[in-house]
C-alpha cells in the first residue's frame, strides 16, 4: 500500500515570541511526507519548487526515503514563500508576506508509477486541483483531504464537488462551523458528513481533536506542552501521522482510526517543539511510541469501581 | 464524612436562544448541593435567602435530603437575583440585572452541627467570606474552592490568603491565565499550585477539563451535547459532582480524583439539558452510571497493537 501526498513545498519565514528564522523548509506536502515517512514507504510526493530550491533541502526529503519523481522543478521562477508572525499566545498569527511564485501555476501531474496509490493525502490546495489529482488515481482505498476557510469562502462549489469524492476530511473547528453553518460541532459534523466524507476530524488546537465516524465520536486530548516553539505545520503533521499509521496498518476500523488520530496528535506535538520540520527530521521510533503511551496516560478514565450507585 | 456547601442561593432570569424563564431557582450553593446529593449525605448547606423565597423551592432542596439548618432566612429583603442572556454560541453571556439583596450582607455562620464537616465546598463568594467559613470548621479533610475573575482582579490579597488554606481549586482557563499571569496552561498550573492548592482543575467549557495533581495531568473530554439548552450552573454542578464522588468514596488518590472529574463533567452535561436545576432534580443513578460509561467510550485510546515500530 503506497501513500501519495499532494500539496505545497515551500520556504517559510517565521517569527514567534521565542525566535525568528528567515527561510526554512516548509509547505503542506513537506510536513505531511516527512511525518508519514516514519510510518510507511513507499511515500510519493507531488508538488512544485522553483530554481532556488536548495539541494540541501532536497536531500532532507530523500533521506526520509520520499519518492520525488512527482516533484516538479520549475526553473521559470522561485519556490512558494510564506512569511508570518505568531502572537504571544501562539494561537493567532499574521501573514506578513505571501509569494506564490511557481506554485501559482501548479498543475499536479501524477507520474505513472504513482497511479496505483492506495492512501491519498490531498494537502490544502485549491479544491479543483485536488479533484484533478483524484481523476488521475486508479483505485485509492482511502482519500484524505485538508482544506481551509479560504476555499470554503472562495471556492465552495469546487470544494463540495471534491468533498463528495473523499473518505476523510480534516479541518479545524472554525472551518467546520463555517462549512456547515452550524455552531454546535456535533450538528456541524452531521451536516459535513452528509456532504461526502464518511469520517470527519475536527482539530481544536490546544484542545485536541474530535473524530466522527459512523459508529462513534472520539475525543482526543492535546498533549500538554510547556514550550510550544513554533506551531507552523502542526496541522499538516497531524495529517501525515494519521495517514501514515493507516497505511502502515492497513486497517480502517473505528478503533484504528482512533489510533491514527493519536499518532497524528503525537507527531504534531513533536512538530511544535522546534522551528519548521527540524524536530520531525530528528525523531526516533522509540520517541513516537513513548508519546503514544503518554497520550493514553493523559486521557485514561479509570473504570467505575467501588461505591457505584 | 459530611459535605458542607457554602455559596449563593438565588433566583435567576435566563434567556437562551432556545427559550426564556423569568425566575427559576439558582445560585452556586443550590447547584452544588443538589448535584452532590446524588452521591452522599449528610449534605449541609450554608447560605441566605430573602422573604420571597418560595416554599416550593425550599421543598425541592429538602426532597434531595439537604440539611438546611445553615440556610438563613433574612426577612429584611429579597433573595439574590441575577438575570442574563446567552449569545447564539452559548459560550458568552450578558448580565442584564444583578440584585444582591440579602446576599449583600451575607455573613456565613456555620451551625454547631456542621463543624466537623469533612469535605468543604466553598462556592464562588468573596474570598474573605470563604476564609471566614474555614475559621469555623474544625478539621476538614478536603477543602474545594471555586472563584472567578471578579475576585482575582478585585480581592487578590484575600484570595491568595484563602488559596493557601485550600486543597483543590476549580477555575476556568481564562481565570487560570489571569491568576498566574501565564498564557501556557501547564506553566499556569505550576504557579497556581505553588500558591497553595495541591490539586488544580481548569475547566475549558466545551473543551473539557484538565486536572493537575502532584503525580500527573489528566485531560477530561467534554460530553458532545447536541442540544445545550442553558449553561447556567454547569460550573457549580461540576463542583458538586466532583465533591460528591470524593465524599462518597473517601478516596483522595490521583485515580479517584480522575473519577471525580468525570462525575463532575457527567453531572454538568446533564445540567445544561434544561433550564436551571430542572434536569438535575430528575436524575436517576442509572443515568449517571450510563453517562460515566459514555465518557469512557468517548475518550478511549486503544492500546498500540500491531505494526508498532
TrEMBL record, chains A, B:
Keywords for this protein: Kinase, Transferase
Gene3D superfamilies: 3.40.1190.20
Taxonomic superkingdom: Bacteria
GO cellular component: cytosol
GO MF annotations, alphabetized: kinase activity
Pfam short name (any one): PfkB
The keyword Zinc belongs to this UniProt entry's keyword annotation: no
UniProt domain Carbohydrate kinase PfkB: residue ranges: 19-277
Protein known as: Adenosine kinase
Source organism per UniProt: Cyclonatronum proteinivorum
Lineage: Bacteria, Pseudomonadati, Balneolota, Balneolia, Balneolales
Amino acid at each position: 500500500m503506497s501513500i501519495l501526498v499532494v500539496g505545497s513545498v515551500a520556504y517559510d519565514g517565521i517569527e514567534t515570541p521565542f525566535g525568528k528564522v528567515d527561510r526554512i523548509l516548509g509547505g503542506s506536502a513537506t510536513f505531511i511526507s516527512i511525518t508519514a515517512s516514519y510510518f510507511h514507504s513507499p511515500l510519493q510526493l507531488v508538488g512544485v519548487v522553483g530554481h532556488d530550491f536548495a539541494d540541501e533541502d532536497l536531500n532532507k526529503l530523500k533521506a526520509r526515503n520520499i519518492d520525488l519523481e512527482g516533484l516538479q522543478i520549475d526553473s521559470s521562477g522561485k519556490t512558494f514563500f510564506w512569511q508570518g508572525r505568531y502572537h504571544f499566545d501562539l494561537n493567532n498569527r499574521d501573514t506578513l508576506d505571501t509569494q506564490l511564485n511557481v506554485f501559482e501555476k501548479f498543475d499536479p501531474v501524477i507520474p505513472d508509477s504513482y497511479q496505483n496509490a492506495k492512501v491519498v493525502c490531498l494537502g490544502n490546495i485549491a479544491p479543483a486541483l485536488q479533484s484533478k489529482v483524484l481523476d488521475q488515481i486508479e483505485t485509492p482505498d482511502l482519500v484524505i483531504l485538508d482544506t481551509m476557510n479560504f476555499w470554503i469562502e472562495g471556492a465552495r462549489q469546487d470544494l463540495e464537488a471534491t468533498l463528495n469524492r473523499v473518505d476523510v476530511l480534516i479541518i479545524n473547528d472554525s472551518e467546520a462551523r463555517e462549512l456547515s453553518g452550524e455552531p454546535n460541532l456535533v450538528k456541524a459534523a452531521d451536516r459535513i458528513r452528509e456532504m461526502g466524507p464518511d469520517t470527519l476530524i475536527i482539530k481544536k488546537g490546544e484542545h485536541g481533536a474530535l473524530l466522527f465516524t459512523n459508529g462513534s465520536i472520539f475525543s482526543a486530548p492535546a498533549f500538554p506542552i510547556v514550550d510550544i516553539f513554533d506551531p507552523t505545520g502542526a496541522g499538516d503533521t497531524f495529517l501525515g501521522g494519521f495517514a501514515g499509521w493507516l497505511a502502515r496498518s492497513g486497517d480502517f476500523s473505528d478503533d484504528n482510526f482512533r489510533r491514527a488520530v493519536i499518532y497524528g496528535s503525537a507527531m504534531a506535538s513533536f512538530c511544535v517543539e522546534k522551528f519548521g520540520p527540524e524536530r520531525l527530521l530528528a525523531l526516533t521510533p522509540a520517541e513516537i511510541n513513548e508519546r503514544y503511551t503518554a497520550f493514553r496516560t493523559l486521557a485514561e478514565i479509570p473504570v467505575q469501581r467501588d461505591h457505584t450507585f
